Amino acid sequence: MADTTFTDNRLAIKAGENPRTRGVKRAGSGRGPNGRATNRLPGERALVASPGTWFVWAGIVVFFLFLFGILISVLVDSFGKQWFSTWLPEAFSADWYARAWNEFDLGHVIGVTLIVAFSVVAISIVIGVPASYVLARSNFPLKRLVLGLFLLPVLIPPITFGIPLATVMYNFGLGRTLLAVILVNLVPSVPFVIITMTPFIEQINPSIENAARMCGAGMRQVFVRVLGPLLIPGILAAGILVLVRTVGMFDLTFLVSGPPSDTLVVAIYRAMTSAGGSEPRALVSAMAVMYTVMMLIILIVALRFVNPTQLVARVRDTSDD
């Protein structure tokens, strides 16, 4: 019997067949729509996309073409010396970057932007994490209403509450100061941290905290030594989102800032509108490129330490353990 099987396998190999799949009926064997024979194994699917799939992919391609087209246009414009009726500038130079750096004191502006951003992140985490812990571990009748109120500064346009905030800041003599810029940016950032961290804490098993208390740990020790390591991924994710949001926040910052306290995004706007827009377009493009590079550096450094897409899985794995 073994000799017969060996002989059949050798004959199958000579005929160009696979001995393991010999005798297996091919799924979809026969004639296809184009009259050609189809030869697929069980479980295989034809690589035929539906019209909806092609429509989605076409939309994605068009989106990225527009995005990269705009970015490349601004980048080329920032190096162009003269650009009138040709596809590319007639000459290239990096003088616009040096002029923007010196004329608008971008070293000071970038320093102010980083100070405001990191100050808002630190204060938002210090206030938002304990508040989100209280909301996650408490049940009271108006809990949904409180969570809805925290959503308001995140969902509604900043200009709607920015004007009253700016009025209050100027009445207290804080207008055009660095402190006013930090305070107004805290209004949407603290609720954002609370909304982000509350469901994150709810996924952590409370039995971990109860076990620590049974061993004699106080509330401070439970929060710092037990919950702290579990909350680090969520805190980093919330900090990254607040950092990016604060650096790009224009409405609230513009209403209370001045030349000494302008962030980079506000400085770009002032360069575009100064003296009726008399600044060269290439100068504004150079500032926009520097703003984009700064945002990319912040994102790359931040994502080097945390992957936000894995946060829920980490909490669940830790809770199951």
Describe the protein in words.
69% of the residues lie in helices and 4% in strands. By secondary structure, it is mainly alpha-helical. Residues 20-30 and 310-319 have low confidence and may be disordered. The protein has 2 domains: 51-93, no CATH class; 100-320, Orthogonal Bundle (MetI-like fold), CATH 1.10.3720. The strands form 2 sheets. Strands 1-2 form a two-stranded antiparallel ribbon. It has helices at residues 2-14, 51-79, 95-103, 106-137, 143-155, 158-171, 178-202, 206-214, 219-247, 251-256, 264-273, 281-303, 311-320; strands at residues 27-31, 37-40, 80-82, 91-92.
Output the CATH topology of the largest domain: MetI-like fold
CATH architecture of the largest domain: Orthogonal Bundle
How large is the count of helical segments? 13
Amino- and carboxy-terminal Cα gap: 54 Å
Strand pairing plus helix content: what structural class? mainly alpha
